[in-house]
Here is the input.
Amino acid sequence: MHLVTVVPAFLIGTFLLLNRKGTSKHRALGKVYMLLMLSTAFITLFMTAQIGPTLLNHFGFIHLFSFVVLYSVPAAFFAARKKDYTTHQYNMIGVYVGGILIAGGFAFAPGRLLHTWLF
Here is the structure.
């Protein structure tokens, strides 16, 4: 389920970052992207950390990205509703860079499932 939500989120997020902001397409795809990222973050909370130290024998450092996404997506949504586009932009770039690029990079580390599948 994690890959089912994060792969389209990566594609939509990339499209949103590279194209014009504020259009009806941006707003519609942005809502889909936000829902996908919230789903992804929620799903990852049920995935046990496989590498490094854990808290409660479950949560690892990578779960910090999940909590950041769960905070930042609603913060970005409400900022956009208030027309605070700077805060919206800051949060959404943070979600993309931290929640997809950095966390995704860690997902390909040796010992992780994606690394095993690909290499």
Notes: Residues 50 and 112 are 7 Å apart (CA to CA). Helices lie at 2-18, 24-44, 63-81, 85-107, 113-118. The mean pLDDT is 91. Residues 85-107 form the longest helix (23 residues).
